[in-house]
Amino acid sequence: MTALRDYNAAVDFVDRHVAEGRGDKIAFVDPSRNLTYGELQDSAARIGPMLARMGIEPENRIALVLLDTVDFPILFWGAIRAGVVPVLVNTRLTVEQYRYLFEDSRARAIFVSTALLPDVQEAAKDLPNVRGVVVVGGGPASLPRLDALLAAENEGSAPARTVADEVAYWLYSSGTTGMPKGVMHVHSSPRVMARCAGQQRIGYREDDVIFSAAKLYFAYGLGNAMICPLWVGATSVFYPERPTPQTVFEMLRGYQPTMFFAVPTLYAAMLADPECKPENMSRRLRLCFSAGEPLPSHVGMAWKQRFGLDIVNGVGSTELGHLFLTNLPDAVEYGTSGVPVDGFKLRLVDENSQDVGDNEIGELLVRGESSAAGYWNQREKSRRTFMGEWTRTGDKYTRRPDGVYTYCGRTDDMFKVSGIWVSPFEIEEALVAHPWVLEAAVVPAEDDKGLVKPKAFVVLRDGADRDVGRALYEELKLHVKRSIGPWKYPRWIEFIDDLPKTATGKIQRYMLRDHNGMANGGDR
Fold it and tell me: How far is Cα 238 from Cα 228, in angstroms, rounded to an integer?
């Protein structure tokens, strides 16, 4: 891609569409209202003067604690257009976690959806960097409201003179271990994501209607529901609440999208729901996509059998901004992560950062122009992750001679049994293929001789007998042995109601490693 210096991402993603004649086309839809490309440009242009009136200057940061509504792109692109940096914040945090992020980012103002206001007000109390809290989507008249502030601006301002390498927005890492890290992305990154992953690999088109159950504060959701569709002039549908199988089927029936994006956990829950029938699906659907966690093979195959559509599996990260490794949409191979997206180079390395050969396990490194500028105020972690042109993912993979990659597990989650590497994901996939198992997570545990063996935490499907104890353990043990090998079976199985997860659906295995509960029916 041609190197640019003077560049503002909002001009490319918003203003360009009006200049090309799409002003009257609907860009975004939520349950309350529609937003055309022309209305998006007009509102985004008035965000700059509004922020200036609040005393917020270019390069300052504002926190967006927003549900997925059409106000999200207005504030996101409006801030970027003005040279102000929007910081995207998870909407499912505790007061303490919000306060940490507001302090860490030094946000000058917080824009918050009405439903989230009480916790955010408590978290922002007495923070010296916060000049104001603005309510989005109604709210009490006693507080500044986005609709009133925008209405008070008679006209928009010209885009800020930003440069391609200037920080445009932040995402926070999902924090599968420890506190989240502020990941800084520059103005030139979104178009790399949109061109390489969106247009060239996934095949977004101007006539597409996109529905993503993954939320906009999450790199996967931001890429598939806003950055990629906006680039090609498509329409994206937002759902503000937490998705459930029932509400997702309602959205698919009601809006008839052509592309659907979700995480594996949601696909599995939808398949287990009695309403999972072709008549509850969009008749126009041409592509289903999964990322956030690896897609279990049996989920993809069951979906294909039910609906006649494959689920395309992809891999991305907060640090790379969006997807860099996916199955080919027209040649899905379940159990693999696919091939690199054009524009990205991949390497597998050992503990000494030396390249490993085909069919050997190594840590995945990625090189691509969408890589973040670094972590905010985390110099040591930035140096460990961003190694020159290469970004360390912390994931273990193998690569076949034909260039297809297969996920093995997080580097921190991998462990050896009898001197052989064991992938927790491989055991989990074998477990969830059993008809009684809904979800599973595997961690290392020591036996009474101090030797490391797999331990599984299992969530059973509705209707499964949770009191079968030893008999079910023996059945699952045999099932895993037959599926993937005799040394990989879990020596202990604990049946639990839910797995600990981040708000983006990733299993927090470190919490299970610290779990002190006794295994049910396991070997001693």
Answer: 14
What letter represents residue 309's amino acid? L
**Which residue range(s) make up the domain with 152?**
30-162
CA distances from 492 to 202, 325, 428, 454, 519 (A): 41, 34, 13, 7, 5
DSSP class of residue 264 equals H
Answer yes or no: is 117 within a domain: yes
Lowest mean pLDDT among 81-95, 406-420, 430-444, 446-460: 406-420
pTM over 0.70: yes
Contact (Cβ atoms closer than 8 angstroms) between residue 48 and residue 92: no
Residue 523 lies inside a defined structural domain of this protein: no
Which ranges constitute the DSSP H helices of 389-436?
Answer: 424-432
Task: For residue 236, give the 3-state DSSP assignment.
Answer: strand
Please check whether residues 112 and 40 belong to one and the same domain: yes
Q: Among candidates 496, 506, 512, which has minimal Cα distance to 460? A: 496
Q: Which residue has the tokens 């983006």?
A: 504
Q: Domain check: are 86 and 46 in the same one?
A: yes
The DSSP 8-state label assigned to residue 469 in this structure reads T
Give yes or no for residue 2 having a pLDDT over 50.
Answer: no
Claim to verify: residue 436 and residue 464 sit in the same structural domain: yes
CATH code of the domain in which 71 resides: 3.40.50.980
Asked whether 228 and 261 are in contact (CB, 8 A), the reply is: no
Closest CA to 373 of 182, 89, 159: 182
CB 319 within 8 A of CB 368: no
Please report which helix (H) or strand (E) contains residue 110, including its range: strand 109-113
In this structure, the dihedral spanned by the alpha carbons of residues 379, 355, 507 and 294, taken in order and rounded to 10 degrees, is 130
Q: pLDDT of 366-397, one tens digit each? A: 999 999 999 999 999 999 999 999 999 999 99
Whether residues 458 and 349 fall in one domain: no
pLDDT of residue 520: 40
Sign of CA dihedral 347, 353, 359, 365: negative
The tokens for 470 are 């030893």
- Which pLDDT does position 178 carry in this prediction? 61
Number of domains, the chain: 3
Q: Element (H or E) spanning 302, and its range?
A: helix 297-307
pLDDT at 296: 87
